[in-house]
Amino acid sequence: MLRYSGVPKEHPFHKEPIISNLAIITESMPRLSENTSPEMQQCTPACQSPVANSQSDECWFAIRVSYSRELALKAILDAEKIENFIPMRYEYIIKSGKRVRKLLPAIHNLVFVHSTRKRIDALKDRLESSMPIRFIMNREHCRPVVIPEAQMRSFILVAGSCDEAILYVEPAELHLVKGQKVRITGGVFEGVIGEFVRIRHDRRVVVNIEGVMAVATTFIPPSLVEPVE
Fold it and tell me: How far apart, in Å, are the Cα atoms of 1 and each of 114, 130, 149, 154?
């Protein structure tokens, strides 16, 4: 099973040695809405994902937390030994008049959680008054977004890279390009499966978690990819 804590060793919440050093394409940090959408309010807790066949299936879910408390939620998940992942990046901030390089979440209000629907529902109920959390929903089917294991593995391979040329891509930008599904066969991103597209004047492989977010590798030469049926 994939195990990745989502926070590099420099971070105070780190428990295992990993790597992460991301740079984001936008000047301001993306932020998921802190308000519950009308679509989410209409969805009942009983609705099931087409991938998760029962409440006891362990799956990757995308969880929304309000007021930029993703690291606080991560601390709770780590304490309960629930696998989770937060994309991180280094950013320069001003502290005591000095410019300091600090590790921060790349996307506020977003935590990926690997657990059962039943266990996350129980956690939601327990945190309701202190730290409300919500599933990111598939609006068409009124179900939580469930991320396949293989796709999440590719996402973490890219988002957990120490390369600073990683891009987080807006869904609107992806709608303008369509690429071939490929597997990267060498280099630091070996094994990643995604779409081979041209973005920002470079050929990159994009791992797109539909309805949540997408991340793009650095430049990938055509010699390092192979088509995937």
Answer: 10, 31, 9, 14
Cα R_g (the chain), whole angstroms = 18
CB atoms within 10 A of CB 68: 15
Using alpha carbons only, give the angle 204, 155, 76 rounded to the nearest 5 degrees.
Answer: 150
Q: Which residue has the tokens 């790349």?
A: 106
Cα 221-222-227 angle, rounded to 5 deg: 135
Angle formed at CA 130 by CA 129 and CA 135, multiple of 5 degrees: 80
β-strand pairing of 167-169 with 180-184: unpaired
Per-residue tokens: 83: 């696998």
Query: What are 37-83's pLDDT values in tens digits?
Result: 433 333 433 333 444 555 778 999 999 999 999 999 999 999 999 99
Task: Using CB atoms within 10 Å of the CB of residue 121, give its burial: 0 to 12 exposed, 13 to 18 middle, 19+ buried.
Answer: middle
Hey, which bits of the chain come out as E strands?
Answer: 58-65, 83-85, 88-95, 98-105, 110-116, 133-135, 137-138, 143-144, 146-147, 167-169, 180-184, 193-199, 202-209, 213-216, 225-227
Phi, psi of 146 (to 5 degrees): -115, 125
CB atoms within 10 A of CB 148: 12
